[in-house]
Each structure stands twice: as structure tokens, then as C-alpha cells.
């Protein structure tokens, strides 16, 4: 391990790819596991939490880590695939130690932990050696002063305080995709998860909620005030919000719908009126909709929106007014691949695919699957009896309903307990 840096900061490891000796990526680093020692002794780093493909988190002992550098972690390639479970004697550096309030013994300065350094000793063991902390800000515009001190120079790292805060943990999650952040939050202890959720803004929390298992969604929403829960539901896609509200007690669901903005609540109520296992129940009511006089350039500009999923961006729907669902009559669909081959000034109405039957809201999951497979599509329009566009069903909507319940937490391998 001679090429490994002598000091590595734990928070900077989050998200780094993990490779086996052959250079194949086996996962990503999610956290560092340590055992705190009595007194001021440096905690021993026992391993890394690694998210393997399939969004499963496993434990990699430090004895299996052969190299750590600024861009990657290399292991022996022999990972135990049993799901990681934190032991009572263990602490997560990123998940639990960041934001902990500490005091520098010599000066009495109080601050919160924003990173922790780990080093390898002569015996090749890894220990936590330094603490990076930030004082509270003394003005609105200036950040508090930062300090980096030796582990034994601070008090408070062994104490788990209520209302710890989550500013620095949120910062470490900021660069993660919602699905990855959701997986980290799912594995946090209940109290820490509550602190993180409280510190997240509504839009980010909505994105993460959409990626969490149903039981986590309900638990988190029930711990929020009704006013904030309604705000978060408004930020979610209507189909995901409808699914979540359907899982809540009826009285709670009714109250939250009343607190939501009328237009947002109307979309959710409409989706809730359809059967959950139908095209109407799982469709998204916000596809890319254009008028017949829109140009190819306008269509391409709309599908470039980074907030659109790839499946939603694959098709545009040309309708008569009104252009919000339920629209006027659906005139046809245009595929992004076709749009890319046409002159920007061409009207979208001139390149429509009109030879496709459309789904109705009562179509079953099997109907939707057959439709997408028959026409080689990743999204399909859903219309009413008058041919008005109600929404679109995407392949990811379909998979969410076809995969077994709890698939987000599904095992991807078997193994034995870690020693």
C-alpha cells in the first residue's frame, strides 16, 4: 500500500468508485466505519461501506482495501455480499460523525465537524487522526472560521447529542444523484435520518423521496409537519405523489390534498381516481406537449430540459389547445431521433408518427408492456374516449409496478456474516 496517501479525508471518499484488481468497478464508497475507543485514543477504522450494483450496501474490511487515492479505491475483489448492518460498537463517519458539536480543549473554541482524516499506522491499521471543524458563522455573509486539529485535542466526538444538525452531511450528499442519496439516507439510523430530512430543502427531499422504498416514504412524510409535507408533495412528480398519498391514512391524505396548491392537488386527485395497476394510475400528466405550429427547433429546446427523464424526453406530443392535460385532441407523436434529422425550421406537425394506436386510462400493466414492446417505445400516450391526451406512461413507470414489492431493497447476492 505504498502508493496510498498518508492521510485521507473521509468525506472526500464518498462516491469514489471501487475497483477490483482487474480494473472492473464493483461499487462506490458510501461511508467509513470506525470503532471509538475509551478516552481520547484514536478510533480504529474497520472498513468501508460500499454500494455495489443493485443499490445494495455491503461491508469491505480495511484488510481488503489495497489502495486509496484521490480518484478511486482498489480492493482485493473479494467482497462479502451480505447487506451491511451497523453494529452497536460501530460509528459511521459520514452518516453520524459529521455535524457533531465539538470543543477544542486548549482554546475552548466550539464548532461542528465537517470532515475527519484517517491515516495508516506502522502496523498498517487505519485510524482517525485529525478533525476538521467549523465555528458558527458570526455574520450572514461570512462562513465561520475553520480549524484542523489532532483527534485528541477535541472533546465531544464520543457524545451523540440530540438535534445534531446535518449541514455538512447534506453537503456531502449534494453531488449524489437522488437515487444514490436515497440509498445513503435509507441506511442511516432513524434519529440521524430525521435530522437529515429536516435540513434538506423541499425540492431535494422530493427527488430523494421518489427513490425511497414505500415504507420509508410514508415514515418520513408522517414525521413532517402537514404544511411541509404538502410542500414536498407539490415538488414531487404527480404520479409519485399520488402513489405516496394512496399509502397514507385516508384522513391524512385528505388533509394534505387540501393544503396543496389547487392545480397540483387536481393532478394528483385525477391520478388517484384511476386504478393503481392501470395506465391511468401510473401515467405522468406532464409530458412535453406542443401545438401544431411549433417548430423542430422549439421541440428540441423543450426536450433539452435537464429535469426531464430520458424516457419523457424521447417523445413530444402535438395536440390542439389546451396544451395542458387533459389537452385538446392528440394529433400525433414525434420521436426525438426523427426530430434530430429534420431542419430546425420544419414544423413538428409535418413529422408526426400517426400510425400508432394510443393507450386508454384503463389499460392493464400487460397492455402497457405489450404496447411498448410492439412499437419499440420507452413512453406511450394515454388518451380518453375523445382522443384527448391525459398523460404518458414511461417504461420506468411500468417497471416500478412490474418489479416485486420492495425491489429497491432487494438482495443482489448471498454471503456469510462478516467476522
From TrEMBL:
Pfam families given in the database record: CBS, MgtE_N, PRC, SH3_actinomycetes
Sequence ranges assigned to domain CBS in this UniProt record: 283-350, 352-410
An MF annotation (GO) of this entry: hydrolase activity
Highest taxon of source: Bacteria
One cellular component (GO) term of this entry: membrane
InterPro entries membership: CBS_dom, CBS_dom_sf, Mg_transptr_MgtE_intracell_dom, MgtE_N_sf, MgtE_transporter, Peptidase_S8_Asp-AS, PRC-brl_dom, PRC_barrel-like_sf
Keywords associated with the record: CBS domain, Hydrolase
Family: Belongs to the peptidase S8 family.
Designated name of the protein: Magnesium transporter
Amino acid at each position: 500500500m505504498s502508493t496510498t496517501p498518508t492521510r485521507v479525508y473521509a468525506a472526500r471518499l464518498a462516491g469514489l468508485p471501487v475497483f477490483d484488481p482487474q480494473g472492473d468497478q464493483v461499487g462506490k464508497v458510501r461511508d467509513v466505519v470506525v470503532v471509538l475507543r475509551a478516552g481520547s485514543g484514536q478510533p480504529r477504522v474497520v472498513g468501508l461501506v460500499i454500494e455495489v450494483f443493485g443499490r445494495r450496501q455491503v461491508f469491505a474490511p480495511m484488510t481488503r482495501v489495497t489502495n486509496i487515492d484521490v480518484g478511486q479505491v482498489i480492493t482485493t475483489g473479494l467482497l462479502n455480499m451480505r447487506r451491511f448492518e451497523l453494529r452497536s460498537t460501530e460509528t459511521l463517519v459520514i452518516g453520524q460523525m459529521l455535524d457533531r458539536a465539538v470543543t477544542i480543549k486548549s482554546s475552548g473554541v466550539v464548532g461542528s465537524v465537517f470532515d475527519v482524516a484517517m491515516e495508516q499506522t506502522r502496523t498498517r491499521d487505519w485510524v482517525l487522526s485529525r478533525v476538521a471543524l467549523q465555528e458558527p458563522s458570526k455574520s450572514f455573509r461570512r462562513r465561520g472560521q475553520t480549524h484542523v486539529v489532532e483527534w485528541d485535542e477535541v472533546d465531544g466526538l464520543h457524545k451523540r447529542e440530540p438535534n445534531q444538525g446535518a449541514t455538512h452531511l447534506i453537503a456531502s450528499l449534494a453531488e449524489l444523484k437522488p437515487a444514490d442519496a436515497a440509498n445513503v439516507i435509507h441506511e442511516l439510523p432513524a434519529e440521524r435520518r430525521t435530522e437529515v430530512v429536516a435540513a434538506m430543502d423541499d425540492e431535494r427531499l422530493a427527488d430523494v423521496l421518489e427513490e425511497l422504498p414505500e415504507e420509508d416514504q410514508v415514515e418520513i412524510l408522517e414525521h413532517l409537519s402537514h404544511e411541509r409535507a404538502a410542500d414536498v408533495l407539490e415538488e414531487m412528480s404527480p404520479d409519485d405523489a399520488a402513489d405516496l398519498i394512496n399509502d397514507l391514512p385516508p384522513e391524512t391524505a385528505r388533509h394534505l390534498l387540501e393544503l396543496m396548491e389547487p392545480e397540483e392537488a387536481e393532478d394528483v386527485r385525477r391520478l388517484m381516481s384511476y386504478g393503481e395497476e392501470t395506465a391511468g394510475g401510473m401515467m405522468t400528466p406532464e409530458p412535453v406537449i406542443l401545438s401544431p405550429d411549433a417548430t423542430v427547433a422549439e421541440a428540441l429546446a423543450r426536450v433539452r430540459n435537464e429535469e426531464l427523464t430520458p424516457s419523457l424526453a424521447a417523445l413530444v406530443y402535438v395536440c390542439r389547445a389546451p396544451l395542458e392535460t387533459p389537452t385538446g385532441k392528440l394529433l400525433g407523436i414525434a420521436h426525438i431521433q426523427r426530430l434530430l434529422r429534420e431542419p430546425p425550421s420544419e414544423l413538428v406537425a409535418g413529422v408526426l408518427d400517426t400510425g400508432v394506436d394510443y393507450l386508454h386510462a384503463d389499460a392493464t400493466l400487460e397492455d402497457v408492456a405489450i404496447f411498448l414492446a410492439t412499437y419499440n417505445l420507452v413512453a406511450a400516450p394515454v388518451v380518453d374516449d375523445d382522443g384527448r391526451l391525459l398523460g404518458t406512461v414511461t417504461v420506468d413507470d411500468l417497471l416500478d409496478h412490474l418489479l416485486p414489492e420492495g425491489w429497491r431493497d432487494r438482495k443482489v447476492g448471498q454471503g456469510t456474516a462478516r467476522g
